Amino acid sequence: GAKQPTITRFFSKV
Amino acid sequence: MLELRLVQGSLFKKVLDGIKDLVNDANFDCSSTGFSLQAMDSSHVALVALLLRSEGFEHYRCDRNISMGMNLSNMAKMFKCAGNDDIITIKADDGGDTVTFMFESPTQDKISDFEMKLMSIDSEHLGIPEAEYHAIVKMPSSEFARICRDLSTIGDTVVISVSKEGVKFTTKGDIGIANIVCRQNTSVDKPEEATVIEMNEPVSLTFALRYMNSFTKATPLSNIVTISLSNELPVVVEYKIAEMGYVRFYLAPKIEE
């Protein structure tokens, strides 16, 4: 099935 | 010292109702630009960004940048005590550990103030890069809410696909499959009833309906919702707040392994 990544995979900490 | 006065106080109530299911505790940041918030849900799959620009307030005083940690459900309890026509003022002292919400009835014959304890919240601020989206769909927010609600009775995920045909919402569940296609429709009487699709490239992404349904709690903020999609990027579901700013929800797409 499809995996649910977290948003931090796309946006990094500033 | 911080003092923000909003005559259309119901906006604060709508903002809170729109985000409190997704986020429990959050830091509200106040600067000369405005009143803002960025927070992730507890599983870090979705992110909400709120901006209420200072120009939109009747009175806006923020002597220096402050960040106030608040529990959103406690905040919502207090805001429930404000009437829909009330003027709402948010006040805080620099370095204090409380925030005061003042509600004034339009005729000034009832004035309430509620003091809420602030909390210390460790939160990560994420950089949201500017992105060129493959497709941007603008549609009536109530229609989008209806589609998410309807599809979640059948499946857990929604595939949102934009093609020349229009925008297609698909779900699959134990009982079967559902497809809803919305075509571009600009020949309506009112602009808020239009569906407008800007497509640079076809795009198809899968999302958890549970989150989409949570985003639609912000529907009362705007007649129109804007859905921005790019392959392998989080979707942006935006509710514009007239004259003031926006609530944007970002949701990571599901990825096939």
Low-confidence runs of chain A: none
> Given the helix and strand composition of chain B, which structural class is it?
mainly beta
- The proportion of strand residues of chain A reads 5-15%
Total number of helices of chain A: 0
Average pLDDT, all residues of chain B: 96
C-alpha end-to-end distance of chain A: 32 Å
Q: Which descriptor suits the 3D outline of chain A?
A: rod-shaped
Strand line-up across the major sheet of chain B: 6-2-3-4-18-17-16-10-14
Major sheet summary line of chain A: none
The termini of chain B sit apart by 51 Å
Helix content of chain B: 10-25%
**If you compute it from the alpha carbons, what radius of gyration of chain A comes out, rounded to the nearest whole angstrom?**
9 Å
Number of strand segments of chain A: 1
Q: Give the overall shape of chain B.
A: globular
Are there runs of chain B of 5+ residues with pLDDT below 50, and where?
none
Q: Please give the oligomerization state of what you see.
A: heterodimer
Q: Could you give a short account of the major beta sheet of chain B?
A: 9 strands, antiparallel
Put simply, the count of helices of chain B is: 4
Task: State the order of secondary-structure elements of chain A, H for helix, E for strand.
Answer: E
Helix fraction of chain A by DSSP (H/I, runs of at least 4): under 10%
Largest interface: A-B, 14 and 25 residues
Topology:
The complex is a heterodimer of chains A (14) and B (257).
Chain A: E1 2-3
Chain B: E1 2-6, H1 10-19, E2 25-30, E3 34-40, E4 46-53, E5 59-62, E6 66-71, H2 72-79, E7 87-92, E8 98-104, E9 111-117, E10 135-140, H3 141-152, E11 157-163, E12 166-173, E13 176-182, E14 196-199, E15 203-208, H4 209-215, E16 224-229, E17 235-241, E18 245-251, E19 255-256
Antiparallel strand pairs in B: 1-5, 1-7, 2-3, 2-6, 3-4, 4-18, 7-8, 8-9, 10-14, 10-16, 11-12, 11-15, 12-13, 16-17, 17-18
